[in-house]
Design a protein that fits this description.
Structural class: mainly alpha
Number of domains: 1
Radius of gyration: 25 Å
Helix content: 55-70%
Distance between the termini: 30 Å
Number of strands: 0
Strand content: under 5%
Number of helices: 5
């Protein structure tokens, strides 16, 4: 039973790790794809940070005041984003690779954690920590 609980914990942590890696990757790709809007480059709808829009699936969940504050904060970051885009034009492609590498390293660490828990439980059960029935030779008289 302890083995199942430990592996359930590890698989739950792995699912949480995968979900967080996906969410951070999606947010980073969205930020990189909208970086041209932040630099003031003309777009179809508008130019500058005023043209920055939240994804359609996220807009109903974000209060308008927060969206306006975020837009004003990001408009101040325009020059920094522009210099970053000039320095690393292949950032979007490398972002996916970096996400997969970090996800793989984290997943491997979680699997090692699960194996360590498995070994710890096995050692604990061998030393008599299990509450199951004992052989007749070990029962105290």
């Amino acid at each position: 039973m302890l083995y199942a609980l430990s592996w359930f914990l590890v698989s739950s942590l792995l699912a949480l790790w995968s979900l967080s890696a996906w969410a951070i990757h999606a947010a980073a790709v969205w930020a990189v794809s909208n970086a041209g809007v932040l630099t003031g480059a003309p777009s179809d709808a508008a130019s500058g940070a005023a043209g920055l829009r939240l994804p359609e699936w996220l807009a109903p969940w974000v209060p308008p005041e927060f969206a306006q504050a975020l837009t004003s904060l990001l408009s101040g970051l325009g020059p920094a984003v522009e210099s970053l885009l000039q320095a690393t034009p292949a950032l979007a492609g490398g972002l996916t690779v970096a996400t997969w590498v970090l996800w793989g390293l984290g997943s491997a660490l979680l699997i090692v954690l699960g194996a360590g828990l498995h070994l710890l439980i096995a050692m604990w059960r061998r030393r008599g920590g299990a509450s199951g029935p004992r052989p007749a030779g070990q029962v105290a008289a």
